């Protein structure tokens, strides 16, 4: 137990870095994922094909592969990073955006076809139909699954700890090495700080879900 | 084509605002529109009736290209329907559509439903669009519902809002695809009253419906469809008292026995 109190500065530093990774990757993934979902329902066949291929490949390969790509393969191709955080953010947002794209797409499919037809019949273009009518309704229905994906993202960010990024899990490993006799308490501390992010996220999901539900 | 046009213009003067020439459409094996030739002149009210599966809804939806056609061509006010894209969107703005299931934007208020098109498509200012929309909502009798969401209104009210939404674009022609089929009997008349009023004001209308009373009261022409073809095209008087085809006689006799 004492080990947690003693190591609070490390925990705090790790916590902030995990939060940073999750927030930045989360925002990028939300944007990229929504664009991928839009591409998936667009009338342009090439966009649909690209989006489908991306989602299928990324969603069906382990996150570790994405990290290897970002941290090892990209630098070999000449893309170098000052910090491993950048590689971690690339890997996490590339990976998470595939899941977000699928969630948003299912939301788009849940909006009745008549909504799009009515919008088209008053002369809206594809972009307007999507941004003014379909996505605002779709995003409300996908808030709960999106939050689930973001919670997974917070936990997935621990993989960065294995790639030299000192976030929560990275510090956890270090502390466990230094305090071999109190490994359990070290890990309890790590778990506590993860819960500090994920539990409020779940709570937000619940509140948002109640607020934005639309009656039909 | 011109010859056909002359033949069909014997009843009401005016120009062909909607014109379908040799239009064909298949759903897989099913031939839903068979070589349709059909003209509607400015100010005309045409009611399309027929048994279900006869292609009347498909015909209506093809006119603003919510359904694509296999061949033939469709023109609105002399302009051929373009392929998907900006140009098609522009043309659609001139064609109002009212659906069986209302299709009001579920996340927008009644007022926003009506102003969205004028603001986003026509670039009208919000103040001006609000003013026009309120006038339209008053006209269809739902002005006091403006701040509510669609789900808070009855079906009949929602359908009248849908009519106001289409009218807000100042369309050249209005399409009604079974506008009262999803409504309770007591709500049907409130929607039909609005449509009859609209017809009286000279709006060009194509109405797919089962409401024979509306056809008698407001239509200039009745088009009877069966099996993807236009079987009869006559005045309501001619059609209801003296149908020419056995298909139409059969259809009308079934209506009367209930």
Provide a short characterization of the protein structure.
Chain A has 216 residues and is mostly helical.
Q: Please identify the structural class of chain A as seen in this structure.
A: mainly alpha
Q: Counting H and I runs of at least 4 residues, what is the number of helices of chain B? A: 10
Helix percent band of chain B:
25-40%
Shape of chain B: globular
Largest sheet of chain B: 6 strands, mixed
Share of β-strand residues of chain B: 15-25%
> How much is the average pLDDT of chain B?
90
Percent helix among the residues of chain A? over 70%
Low-confidence stretches of chain B: 1-13
Number of strands of chain A: 0
Instruction: Please give the alpha-carbon distance between the first and last residues of chain A.
Output: 53 Å
Oligomer: heterodimer
Taking pLDDT < 50 over at least 5 consecutive residues as the criterion, the unreliable ranges of chain A are none
Q: Alpha-carbon distance between the termini of chain B? A: 40 Å
Give an overview in words.
The complex is a heterodimer of chains A (216) and B (258). Chain A is an all-alpha fold and 216 residues long. Chain A has ten helices and no strands. In chain A, helix 5 (84-110) packs across helix 7 (126-141). The radius of gyration of chain A is 20 Å and the shape is flat. By secondary structure, chain B is of the alpha/beta class. Helices cover 39% and strands 24% of the residues of chain B. Chain B contains ten helices and ten strands. Chain B has helices at residues 2-8, 56-63, 86-93, 110-120, 126-139, 155-167, 185-200, 212-218, 236-241, 246-256, and strands at 16-27, 30-41, 45-49, 71-76, 79-80, 95-98, 173-177, 204-208, 221-226, 229-234. In chain B, the strands form two sheets. In chain B, strands 6-7-8-3-9-10 form a six-stranded mixed β-sheet, with helices on both faces. A four-stranded antiparallel β-sheet of chain B has the order 2-1-4-5, covered by helices on one side. In chain B, strand 7 (173-177), helix 7 (185-200) and strand 8 form a beta-alpha-beta unit. The longest helix of chain B is centred in the last third of the chain and has 16 residues, at 185-200. Chain B is globular and about 55 Å long. Chain B starts with a helix and ends with a helix. Chain A binds chain B through residues 43, 112, 114-115, 117-126, 128, 132-133, 136-137, 140, 214-216, and chain B through 64, 66, 84-86, 89-97, 99, 101-107, 116-117, 120-121, 149, 151-152, 162, 165-166, 169.
